[in-house]
Amino acid sequence: MSSSRPTISDVAAAAGVSRAAVSKVLRDAYGVSPQMRERVEQAIAELGYRPREAARAMRTATRTIGVAVPLLRGQFFADILDGVYEGLDTGPYRMLVSPFDHETSERNPGMESLWDREVEAVIVVSPKVRASWLDSFAQRLPTVVVARHDASDHYDRVVNDDRAGAALAVEHLAALGHRRITHLSHNVSGPGVLSPHAVREAGYREAMRRLGLDAYLSVVTCGGSEAETCRATAALLDRGDPPTALFVGSDQGAFGSLRALSEHGLRVPDDVSVVGYDDTQFASHPRFSLTTVAQYGTAMGRVAAELAVERIKVRKEAREWVSQPALIERESTGPVRLL
Amino acid sequence: MSSSRPTISDVAAAAGVSRAAVSKVLRDAYGVSPQMRERVEQAIAELGYRPREAARAMRTATRTIGVAVPLLRGQFFADILDGVYEGLDTGPYRMLVSPFDHETSERNPGMESLWDREVEAVIVVSPKVRASWLDSFAQRLPTVVVARHDASDHYDRVVNDDRAGAALAVEHLAALGHRRITHLSHNVSGPGVLSPHAVREAGYREAMRRLGLDAYLSVVTCGGSEAETCRATAALLDRGDPPTALFVGSDQGAFGSLRALSEHGLRVPDDVSVVGYDDTQFASHPRFSLTTVAQYGTAMGRVAAELAVERIKVRKEAREWVSQPALIERESTGPVRLL
DNA sequence: TGACTATTGTAGATCGATCTACATTTTTCA
DNA sequence: TGAAAAATGTAGATCGATCTACAATAGTCA
Questions:
Q1: What average pLDDT does chain A have?
Q2: Do A73 and B52 touch (CB under 8 A)?
Q3: Per-residue pLDDT tens over the stretch B179-220
Q4: Mutate to test the interface with A, among B58, B67, B112, B117 (most CBs of A within 10 A)
């Protein structure tokens, strides 16, 4: 009582009824007369009472879905979060976000913290942790993994057809006459991870071969930040014999490449064509006008939310949902320059 | 037991000790022999036991600080979240994020949901809700409000000196010879809110007057998204007599203005100079090279975290921390064109 | 040895909700 | 009217941790 948080007992005392009666009102349960409801609701309003989630969680499900994401830089994560929010907004589930920074290949602390808080399902973008860890986690708690290709009998997956997406990019560039197409890949994950970037790289190699461009295969691997990709691109340009086109593993990275090209005094697309991946917000800005492969992050988030809810309620077996990529042509790509 | 989550009793049974003994090991409390610790830890590992936060919260503080932010679009929010994470990373407090979308002027559901979860303090970016609501909330739970200027005896504030920031922008443009400087303000909040945008607008007016440019005062108000600011800028340009310089209330908005200028075939800075606010990631990209006012969002987040922790532990009275803005000159501003 | 202290462990109350089982009152209708 | 059914309310167990109070055991030293 007094200065600390009011409890259900305080409300009961104020309304002159039992704790059970208040609980019934809170839960909209059977057996409450209009008069009692009235009295209780007034007491609740007077005291500013709100039930403690922790106490509820002792007896009932939390109606909460947890989302674990790497620290929130990067437009693509924001797209996914938006989608999850949308997907849950109309239903009874709330969303709780646990950002994490210290993911290792052995464990994901963001997911563990959500497990501690008894969320009913977890949606996760976890690029580093090994698939076997995710798998054992998912045996305890319904889990939807976004943007990883590892197969699993235990967790749902929402993933883009990155192989097809890479093919779209390569075919587009090849159709413009490019042969020397370098792929800047962010495939930096360790063992036990089948990342989208690994699949994009495989898709790139496959498409290049299919188009008879084996001789021009060229992959540079670097981190996915703008700065790292900028550095990697600069190094590539400093080597003799630079490519006429870049297929970069993300928009974020592509912006870094554009920075490096600009600093090298090269024009886009006149000297070098650039294709990104994700179709993030800035790609469409006229200052970038970046040709890119859309994977529809918001839709992926929305689907992840739906799968999570489904899995809590009824479905037993794991499912996979694949988003179909589309090429968005803009002005960062053009015909190869004839010598 | 069996298939559901293991409890402390399961661990106790497996280790052949009492529940209290396990609890001691968990809390690193006094009175545990090395042998007992060994046995208990082994049982914990075997069962994959992790204590339920909800059960703990019934008896002890949660050691959690909640962060409530509008849905996560916008680089500036991401900067703040990063800062909060950094600020808490070394201490005992964890961070929980509650994104919200349906903030009204009467209440902020994200903050309420954190209160339900018994976080020990709340850090919030809440542009819409009235100050009086924040004030009454803060009387129940330590609260740090980021990016609002409303005075309060109950919550801490972390805020930029927006008046000075606006002056920096105006002075910079005036020094380049601009007179017809229009301010695109995102000051769209209702009553009971003293937003940074309101203060920037006031700062703009004050600086213009101080510089003898009263006659050129011109403010256009629009939402803060890129799209809305783009539309507002386009409308402004369609009116006759367009300004030679724009001071936009945010980088996000400034990117929208750049889009509109580009679509109108106007060059920056040759035809129109543009200044943003926030110094977000993309402002430094050569494709934008946006002159802007830095307010150091990451530092603000870090300070907010420190204030929150301080307030939980010891401090009783509310404090204000003011970040000093700095002008970052880039290539989106230049001398006014002589006719 | 025996008294005192330190160490190691446990029993059981407690936190604030939910919810079953049951008691009491009111309504229905033969 | 009176018995059955429906409506309304409460008592008290319960969830899984923490933590106080205390018991049992081991160690110390006059």
A1: 94
A2: no
A3: 999 999 999 888 889 999 999 999 999 999 999 999 999 999
A4: B117
pLDDT, residue A4, reads: 81
User: Checking DSSP bridges between strand B326-328 and strand B291-294, what pairing results, if any?
Assistant: antiparallel
User: Which residues of A, range 227-266, sit inside 8 Å of B by Cβ?
Assistant: 255, 258-259, 262-263
Instruction: With CB atoms and an 8 Å threshold, state whether B94 touches A72.
Output: no
B13/D29 CA-to-C1' distance in Å: 39
Residues in B closer than 8 angstroms to A286, CB to CB, are 258-259, 262-263
Q: What is the pLDDT of residues B70-123, one digit of tens each?
A: 986 778 888 899 999 999 999 999 999 999 988 899 999 999 999 999 999 999
pLDDT tens digits along B6-60: 999 999 999 999 999 999 999 988 888 888 899 999 999 999 999 999 999 999 9
Distance CA A188, CA A251 (A): 17
In 3D, which of A338, A237, A328, A234 has the Cα closest to residue A290? A328
Distance of CA A211 to the CA centre of its chain: 32
pLDDT tier at A191 (50, 70, 90 boundaries)?
confident
Closest CA to A77 of A126, A119, A29, A39: A126
Residue listed under structure tokens 């930096």:
A188
- Is the separation of the CB atoms in B40 and B14 below 8 Å? no
pLDDT of the residue at A1: 32
Does residue B59 reach within 7 angstroms of strand C, measured from its CB? yes
Give strand C nucleotides closer than 7 A to any protein Cβ: 7-12, 14-21
3-state class of A140 per DSSP?
A: coil
Given the structure tokens 């200052």, which residue do they identify? Answer: A287
Length B49 CA → C11 C1' (Å)? 23
Q: Is the CB of A36 under 7 A from strand D?
A: yes
Q: How many CB atoms within 10 Å of residue A140?
A: 16
Chain B contact for A29 (CB, 8 A cutoff) = no
Strand order, beta sheet including B326-328: B219-221, B181-185, B245-248, B273-278, B291-294, B326-328
Q: What residues of chain B lie within 8 A of the CB of A287, using their CB?
A: 255, 258-259, 262, 287-288
pTM tops 0.90, yes or no: yes
Measure A22 CA to C28 C1' (Å).
29
Question: Averaged over A157-175, what is the pLDDT?
Answer: 98
Distance of CA B328 to the CA centre of its chain: 20
HEC readout, A54-67? HHHHHHCCCCEEEE
Contact predicate A69/A81, CB 8 Å: yes
CA distances from B63 to B45, B96, B120, B145 (A): 24, 11, 7, 19
Would the CB atoms of B50 and A112 count as touching at under 8 Å?
yes
pLDDT tens by residue, A212-239? 999 999 999 999 999 999 999 999 999 9
If pLDDT is split at 50, 70 and 90, which confidence band does A34 have?
A: confident
Which pLDDT band holds residue B339 (cuts at 50, 70, 90)? low
DSSP A290-315: -EEEE--HHHHHHHHHHHHHHHHHT-
Q: Does A98 touch chain B (CB under 8 A)?
A: yes
